[in-house]
Amino acid sequence: MSLQSSGGSRGNELVASCKYHEVAGSVQALHIEELKDSLTAEWNTETVTRVIALHSQNIKPDFIISFDNIGVSQHPNHIAVHNGVMFEKITHTITLTQFLIPY
């Protein structure tokens, strides 16, 4: 699942990455207008958490791969995704066999 505003290319990048790494299954790009791909716009962590929880309950993933707590180059949107995933892990809103957070 890739979070992005409409017209973003992150979904295509995710599909290509999954194909390259031979990750099978459904890949989704969610177009959420309030989550614009930008170096300056900060995503609201509560919104990210809500989106992750809602869609994870629907698709029931086996695992989530996310950013670490500093993101790539301290990108604020990457950090918001990390925080949203970790909040879900702590509150057990979604059940996963594992969380994969690269370092």
Mean pLDDT: 75
SS-based class: alpha/beta
Q: How many individual domains?
A: 1
Q: What can be said about the biggest beta sheet? A: 2 strands, parallel
Radius of gyration, rounded?
13 Å
What coarse outline follows from CA principal-axis ratios? Answer: globular
What portion of residues is helical?
A: 40-55%
Number of strands: 4
Please write the string of helix (H) and strand (E) elements.
EHEHEHE
Unreliable segments of 5+ consecutive residues:
none
Instruction: Give the N-to-C terminal Cα separation.
Output: 20 Å
What does this structure look like?
The protein is an alpha/beta fold and 103 residues long. It has one domain. It is 41% helix and 12% strand. Helix 2 (45-59) packs across helix 3. The longest helix has 16 residues, at 76-91.
Question: Helices, strands, pairings?
Answer:
Blueprint: E1 2-4, H1 10-20, E2 29-31, H2 45-59, E3 63-65, H3 76-91, E4 98-100
Parallel strand pairs: 1-2, 3-4
Helix pairs in contact: 2-3
